[in-house]
Amino acid sequence: MKPNILLISVDQMRGDCLSILNHPVVDTPNLDQLTRSGVLFRNAYSATPSCIPARTAMLTGMSQRSHGRVGYQDKVAWDYKHTLPSVLVEAGYHTQCVGKMHVYPARNLCGFHNVVMHDGYLHHNRIRSANTVTESFDSCDDYLPWLRERAGADCDLLDLGLDCNASTVARPWHLQEALHPTNWVVTQSIDFLRRRDPRKPFFLSMSFVRPHPPFDPPQAFLDMYVDADIPDPVIGVWAEAMDPDRNGLNPITSKGIVPRNRLRRAQAAYYALITHIDHQIGRFLQSMTEYGVLQNTIILFTSDHGELLGDHHLFRKTLPYEGSAKVPFILADPGDLLKMNKNTVNDHVIEIRDIMPTLLDAAGASIPDSVDGLSLLPLARGESVKWRDAIHGEHECKDMSNHYMTDGVQKYIWFSQTGREQLFDLSKDSQETTNLIEDTRYKVSLESWRGRLAAELADREEGYSDGKQLFVGRLAQTVLKNLPNRSN
Signal sequence span per UniProt (predicted)? Predict the structure, then answer.
């Protein structure tokens, strides 16, 4: 029988938050063990680091230029012909998603046989005056009815007083741990193991909303970090040193100087949510052993994007810095089905679009021509293979709209609305503290990166480039209109 496929995705987890990468605080024992049974890809990036565009790349295998989502915009229909679950269905798989999808309409199956959904708090679904009955939150969330059956009919996602995008305010989960959304994803996933079709291999997408805010870990996990010696966020010499408008006092800020005690508690809660997820992943791995499927399952763990968490006085995502754009990425094979070089670290530059072709390759399924990503199996096996030498990323972000290119050694950033540029030597400055744009020793590299980005953006409908030079101030879009792989 073909191998089972388990895709574990989390939301807003930084690529450095693994204890196997010697993070100074975070403890992730189960993810560390997954890495020992597979390969850790250390230079994994999210080309468009926010939820919707990143998850589009995850499910379609397309680059942002192909799937068209180059910023964050709700209520744009998902009408892609080929998705990871739809291709696996054609290959004979029983497919199931538990947790976050963040598609539109919310009940769009995107090729899955079934979806048990919790996207978290989405504003466009909760604002009742803007929705029809069929689009309202009550019709597109499965966690909240489950919670109300167990904890009371008046329970809601707002009970803790935390906003779903608040990156600086934290408090412990107020109900028993078993009722937390993280536990719910695993509880429902274990139930899928019970009721799946045993005649077919399965594809399970186990998709967590955390460590995305609200920062609400169970008390036991917050206790692990609240008194820990947590390092201060890294602040580049180029970062804004002042916050005259006091943006840092806004609980849903994207930049600013946050009161120190509030920031340290947010850091502690963020790390606590990661360890909570890790323990629940351990719970699911034990259940897989009980059901006799662990040794016949390929497991891929990743996040859709990161969290700046105060780096350079910045928060949340969408920006091209390592805390936002770099993600954890583990490909594990407990049963040694794929003959990978286990317990190794790979430094090739990869992107979320590589998930679909990798898992289809593992399943022995055909990879559609629409897929831009590459299978990681040759790299995981240590084979000599011609690989991409860099990736291009971008995100619409008003005056901070940006493009970046990186080969894992250097990173070039261009802010399209202002023309501001940054160049970092990641091999010497992995935390991006020093902008080398004026350093004459990097003049040749800078010109090369400018040329490569200009070529990458040639013929884009925004008019960013003529293929040779970059044009500042062209209107940045959230969704491209001229797309060959979509019907609208």
Answer: none
> How many of the other CB atoms lie within 10 Å of CB of 197?
10
The whole-model pTM stands at 0.96
Question: Exposed (0-12), middle (13-18) or buried (19+): which is 218, by Cβ within 10 Å?
Answer: buried
- Give yes or no for a cis peptide into 244 (omega within 30° of 0): no
Q: Which two tokens stand for residue 213?
A: 């805010």
Instruction: With a cut of 60, say whether residue 134 has pLDDT above it.
Output: no
Between β-strands 329-332 and 38-45, what pairing exists: parallel, antiparallel or unpaired?
A: antiparallel
Distance CA 368, CA 34 (A): 29
> CATH homologous superfamily for 4-386?
Alkaline Phosphatase, subunit A (3.40.720.10)
- Axis crossing angle, helix 181-195 with helix 260-290, rounded to the nearest 10: 10
Catalytic residues: 51, 102
* Residue 81 to residue 60: CA distance in whole angstroms: 9
Q: Which residues contact 346 (CB under 8 A, 6 or more apart)?
A: 39, 40, 41, 42, 379, 380
Calculate the alpha carbon distances from 121 to 163, 181, 233, 247, 412 in Å. Answer: 8, 12, 27, 23, 34
> Which residue is listed with tokens 């719970």?
283
Dist. CA 453–CA 464, nearest whole Å? 10
Q: What is the DSSP string of 33-62?
A: HHHHTEEEEEEEE-SS-SHHHHHHHHHH--
Question: What pLDDT, in 10s, does the model give residues 140-177?
Answer: 899 999 999 999 999 999 999 998 887 899 999 999 99
CA distance 197 to 418: 55
In this structure, of 118-122, 255-259, 462-466, the range with the lowest mean pLDDT score is: 118-122
DSSP lists the bridge partners of residue 202 as: 94
- Neighbouring residues of 191: CB distance < 8 A, sequence distance ≥ 6: none
**Hey, what amino acid is at 73?**
Q
The mean pLDDT of 196-223, rounded to a whole number, is 97
The CB-side HSE value for 74 (13 A sphere, CA atoms) comes to: 11
